[in-house]
Amino acid sequence: DIQMTQSPSTLSASVGDRVTITCRASQSISTSLAWYQQKPGKAPKLLIYKASSLESGVPSRFSGSGSGTEFTLTISSLQPDDFATYYCQQYNTYEGIFGQGTKVEI
Amino acid sequence: QVQLVESGGGLVKPGGSLRLSCAASGFTFSDYYMSWIRQAPGKGLEWVSYMSSSGSVIYYADSVRGRFTISRDNTKNSVFLQMKSLRGEDTAVYYCATKGTIVAAPCHQWGQGTLVTVSS
Which chain A positions have a beta carbon within 8 Å of B94's beta carbon? Predict the structure, then answer.
């Protein structure tokens, strides 16, 4: 089974900061990786798919990169609305395994 | 716009059964793979199952295989999750989500979730 490992688990940042979250796959998943944002009590929201494609309606301060086993989600200038938990998910195999999440907090 | 509305959650005793429903609208339901994902209280996301647009391809996570059954009714734009032999560790918010028109796709749209609590 593929394992997805995110780092860090928690990230403290301030408005305006550049933030980077890393996701590592235990084996190559090409670019079959998505990033989601989840706020407390809400459903996850797709931000990035195919490692670097921005979902429609998502602000351009979000970007994704990587291929194979290492991926990053970058928020270029953190906004108050961005404090949330972020998850990566691989969909290269039938198991849609998620990373454990990264909480971005003040 | 795309809307997914889950229902059927509630409190059930260990060993019991529950059937979740997800009503879809705003898109051509019969073209899309559909997925169930769950989230235990205070925990991360766990993929549970998905079904192809025609129903011919089905996958389950190891943790639910043999106990949960996914199905869909394309005439009613709905997907279902029949859950049997429920355990405490099945307690979670269950989300349905669209998975795209091919198997290798992320979950673009999500419902608001329905809470399942397994407790005596």
Answer: none
